[in-house]
Design a protein that fits this description.
The complex is a heterodimer. Chain A has 10 helices and no strands. By secondary structure, chain A is mainly alpha-helical. Chain A has a domain of 153 residues: MetI-like fold. Chain B is of the alpha/beta class. Chain B is 35% helix and 29% strand. Chain B has a 6-stranded mixed β-sheet, with helices on both faces. In chain B, strand 7, helix 6 and strand 8 form a beta-alpha-beta unit. Chain B is elongated. Classes of the chains: A mainly alpha, B alpha/beta. Chains A and B meet through helix 6 and helix 7 of A and helix 2, strand 6 and helix 3 of B.
Chain lengths: 222, 345
């Protein structure tokens, strides 16, 4: 394959991957984060105590997380068609990616919020804070470094998941690697795809780490 | 200011694993005073103090703050009450993501004050606790004592009438503890703030509390003016807690040689306690003249309890009947409190 052609294929695939990761990451986080807050605050004796609802949501989240992604993609095709109008192509691929992101973000956010010292919740209660104030002024503020790392991990995982949506014609880097690198036996394409993926994941991780460090005031050396 | 009436608190939902944390507590906290509640860990202190601002609810009995029953308040009534009651904690509980200034501002934000009013309040509060220059520091950049000062400033932000202190000095070294106690005493005097503190350290109560209650296994076993309780402890828990204080114990080497009954040529070991009137007079030299016997001092301490001078001296003198009788007469005339600890050879 000529370098020009390879470059064109790579740019197109990279853009598709970025589009899928960005859209699914954004929508999935917007829905997953509140669910994470709910999971972290609705246990017995907690801020918004609702143990039954907590268990039901927890079960649904677990079920969604234990479904292999490739099965999720085909299983929800009718829903995808309903939402995206089609079941193939990049925008159609965003639907299952988003669905997979929601429980993933929810669990990670729950863990990050649970890391917040219980003493801070008590202090805020003692100040006369409403549960809503505690969520926004204490829990989310204090969990910000952990939440940033959670979202970073989500984006990195999405890059991996997006490689599988070639199965429904989603395109992207993974699809390029499979169709050209593997099925047409073009090792140079495979190598290029892998290198681009590595660079992409590194970039996301470094940016996330740097941001989390900036948010984290717990151990300043200066 | 605060009154507990027959307050009981049980944890656990069913009968088998139910745990009674507080059992029939009756206690009142005087307005403008510093009251200490002391007990070992697990005695129920933390639960007791949390009943005052409704962080815990009593199972039975009433907790009154300024005449209002805490248990009868709605969620929003409870929030209003909490904004009038400051609280400081053993582990400070400052938000790591906020600067000192922002931490002190938090209760004001919660109360819904506009930014300008918050700025005007926080600055003077930081000055009051001596950290005006640390406004933009994060808690991780401050020492334990400084963090507790920020905690105190935060607790005072909403101008409360009552301050609850939950083991506020237990995580601090002795020197820092002293400076935090000085600060609390100053706030109590200058702002007329009522302070209710819980601690397991006798030193804390001795230094600043005018009144004390001793709690053991969920019950108040002794209460009264700190000076009275400390100089004449009645309950064994109080005695045990007090034994750590300097001068309360005989040196080990002497304690081992003490016999309960007089022997042939033994000397009586007597603890003489001075306070109030007797602490001001030259009683020791008069005692020596009066006895006509040689007196040696075995152990002693001069201290201040809740601001009052207090001395405790263990002396030994010849245990002959004449000397003992003369000593007895002298103690009666002067009103000195004494206790025969035993006899040494």
């Amino acid at each position: 394959m000529s370098p020009d052609m390879l470059f064109n294929l790579l740019t197109k695939a990279l853009l598709q991957t970025l589009q899928m990761v960005a859209a699914a990451g954004l929508i999935g986080s917007l829905i997953g984060l509140p669910i994470g807050v709910f999971l972290a605050t609705s246990g017995r004796g907690e801020l918004y105590a609702a143990p039954t609802a907590n268990r039901i949501v927890g079960l649904v989240v677990n079920a969604a997380r234990s479904t292999p992604f490739i099965i999720l993609v085909v299983a929800i095709i009718p829903f995808t068609r309903l939402v995206a109008g089609t079941s193939i192509g990049t925008s159609a691929a965003i639907v299952p990616l988003t669905i997979a992101t929601i429980p993933f973000v929810a669990r990670l956010a729950e863990a990050a919020i649970r890391e917040v010292d219980k003493g801070l919740i008590e202090a805020a209660r003692a100040m006369g804070a409403t549960p809503m104030q505690i969520v926004f002024k204490v829990l989310l503020a204090e969990a910000r470094p952990g939440l940033t790392l959670a979202l970073t991990l989500t984006l990195v995982s999405l890059v991996g998941y997006s490689a599988m949506v070639g199965a429904v014609g989603g395109g992207g880097l993974g699809d390029l690697g499979i169709r050209y690198g593997y099925q047409r036996f073009m090792p140079d394409v495979m190598l290029a795809v892998v290198v681009v993926l590595i660079v992409l994941v590194q970039a996301i991780q470094s940016a996330g780490d740097a941001l989390a460090r900036r948010f984290d005031k717990r151990s300043r050396k200066t | 200011m605060v009154a507990f009436e027959a307050v009981t608190k049980r944890f656990g939902r069913n009968d088998e694993n139910q745990f009674t944390a507080l059992d029939g507590i009756d206690l009142s906290v005087a307005r403008g005073a510093i009251t200490g509640i002391i007990g070992r860990s697990g005695a129920g202190k933390s639960t007791l103090i949390r009943l005052v601002n409704g962080l815990e609810k009593a199972t039975s009995g009433r907790v009154l703050v300024d005449g209002v029953e805490v248990g009868g308040l709605s969620e929003s009534g409870l929030r209003d009450l909490r904004r009038q009651v400051g609280m400081i904690f053993q582990h400070f509980n400052l938000l790591s993501s906020r600067t000192a200034f922002e931490n002190v501002a938090l209760p004001l934000e919660i109360a819904g004050l506009p930014a300008k009013a918050i700025r005007e309040k926080v600055g003077p509060l930081l000055d009051l606790v001596g950290l005006g220059d640390k406004a933009n520091r994060y808690p991780s950049e401050l020492s334990g004592g400084q963090k507790q000062r920020i905690g105190i400033a935060r607790a005072l932000a909403t101008s409360p009438k009552l301050l609850l202190s939950d083991e506020a000095t237990s995580a601090l070294d002795p020197e820092t503890t002293q400076s935090i106690l000085d600060l609390l005493r100053r706030i109590n005097a200058e702002l007329g703030l009522t302070v209710l503190l819980i601690t397991h350290e006798m030193e804390v109560v001795k230094t600043i509390a005018s009144d004390v209650a001793v709690i053991d296994r969920g019950r108040i076993v002794e209460k009264g003016r700190t000076f009275d309780v400390f100089t004449d402890p009645k309950h064994e828990t109080t005695r045990a807690l007090l034994s750590g204080l300097a001068g309360a114990k005989l040196p080990e080497a002497i304690a081992r040689k003490l016999a309960a009954t007089p022997q042939a040529v033994s000397r009586a070991a007597v603890r003489v306690t001075f306070f109030g009137e007797t602490a001001q007079q030259p009683l020791v030299s008069r005692l020596i003249q009066e006895l006509g016997s040689e007196v040696n001092i075995i152990a002693g301490t001069i201290d201040e309890i809740a601001g009052e001078p207090y001395g405790s001296l263990v002396i030994a003198y010849s245990a002959t009947p004449e000397v003992l009788a003369r000593a007895e007469r002298f103690y009666r005339e002067t009103g000195l409190q004494t206790e025969v600890l035993g006899y040494v050879a």
